[in-house]
Design brief:
With 252 residues, this protein is of the alpha/beta class. The protein has one domain: Rossmann fold (3-Layer(aba) Sandwich). The chain has nine helices and seven strands.
């Protein structure tokens, strides 16, 4: 695959990018910190070279793309398309996380998170959608969260942003699947990454590499929704069925 990847330098995104590179996919990295991106690109070039039995590509294949700055979206995707000689897959794992308490007491942080995790991610996806459809289709894989599955007390604000993103991705898949665009919405549960450091893990906490393997299978199959780790599909099925009166009493 020829992949433009936003968010490949950390956590689940890094694990997924590495697995893609190891099997020989051609990646172009997008992100805010170009120095960090160049280090990740060098690592992925070695992994891809080993997979293909050839020397690593000496060129740095990165472009600045900041989810807080929509003006960077189109130029970044143009650079990826040009460098890769085409584009058939766009992956978005980048985003912000903050606790409910932090967001309630910091209006600036709240506004920043809502913009990055919802409105600006949607704007980036719209740019990606246009480019993929202009080439006859492809795959758009975006990380949302189980936090957007239902209104829950501990993640009322973060969950609202992810709920909006999940709804958009579902509608996008309905609207364009017959035109050749497969939209894959990833709904991670708790995964042990830098983002969740310091938080108490629940019983079904996952590891980035395991999540990446599950997501990669979903991308290859064009599966519209994937929960990762797998037990979260059952957990959220139960949560969706709980009456409001029960949801008001539980802290989950």
């Amino acid at each position: 695959m020829k992949v433009a990847f936003l968010g490949a330098s950390k956590g689940m995104g890094r694990a997924l990018a590495r697995q893609m590179a190891q099997r020989g996919d051609d990646l172009f990295l997008l992100g805010r910190d170009t120095a960090d991106l160049e280090k990740s690109a060098a690592d992925l070039a070695v992994r891809r070279g080993l997979a293909g039995g050839k020397a690593p590509d000496p060129k740095t294949r990165v472009a600045r793309c900041d989810l807080e700055d929509p003006a960077t979206f189109s130029p970044a995707l143009v650079a990826a398309e040009k460098a890769l000689g085409g584009l058939d897959t766009v992956v978005v794992t980048a985003g912000l996380f903050a606790s409910q308490e932090e967001l309630e007491h910091d209006p600036a942080l709240l506004r920043r998170l809502l913009e990055v995790d919802f409105s600006h991610t949607v704007l980036f996806c719209e740019e990606a959608r246009k480019r993929l459809l202009s080439r006859g289709g492809g795959t758009l894989c975006v990380f949302s969260s189980v936090a957007g599955e239902r209104g829950r007390k501990p993640v009322a604000l973060y969950g609202a942003a992810k709920a909006g993103l999940t709804c958009y991705l579902e509608a996008l898949d309905h609207r364009h699947r017959l035109e050749g665009l497969a939209v894959v919405c990833v709904k991670p549960g708790f995964v042990r990454t830098g983002m969740t450091e310091g938080l108490k893990p629940p019983p079904f906490a996952g590891e980035p590499d395991d999540v990446a393997r599950r997501v990669l299978r979903a991308i290859d199959a064009g599966k519209p929704v994937v929960y990762a780790p797998a037990p979260w599909a059952l957990v959220m099925a139960v949560i969706r069925l709980l009456p409001r009166a029960v949801m008001r009493r539980v802290g989950f």
